[in-house]
Amino acid sequence: MKTLRTWKVFVAAAMSGVCTGCICLPSCLHGHRTLAVPDMVPLGAISRAHWHTMETNGEASDFVMYRNEFVDNSSELSPYGRDHIMEIAARMPSTPFPVIVQRSMNNADPELDAQRRSLVVQVLNDLGAYDADQRTVVSQPYSDGINSIEGERDYARFRLTRGNSSSGFSGGGAGGF
Hints:
By secondary structure, the protein is mainly alpha-helical. It is built from six helices and three strands. The protein is 46% helix and 6% strand. It has a three-stranded parallel beta sheet with strand order 1-2-3. The longest helix is centred in the N-terminal third of the chain and has 19 residues, at 2-20.
């Protein structure tokens, strides 16, 4: 009699464990997916978020109007600036990024910065970007450019490592010879 009662209690406990989920052992999953990182992940799955963030930041930097896109110390757009602002206007409806007008060096001329901002807003509105007033700000760009000394050094490094020079051992079109 006592064994029958023990057996019924055991069956009831087992049934309740099956119905609510078993917690018998850490290795016992019973159909539940583990939240641990698997031993093998697809190639690139771990670094994908990092690359996506870098790509997004790169796209955001496309919406920066730099000082060299204006003629000297004026609010007039240079030819490159006119081309760039047309590209910005074409991409604005499909992106959430702000348009940044690079401020003057050391914020020396805030009036010129305000004139440049108002010109950019006016041109963007004329090109169909009607939310340009809310999305255009005067600020430092996301990344500073490189100066002439850094540019010269990078160019020389490119020529030595990837260019067609004899000291870079690049093969340069000789078919591996």
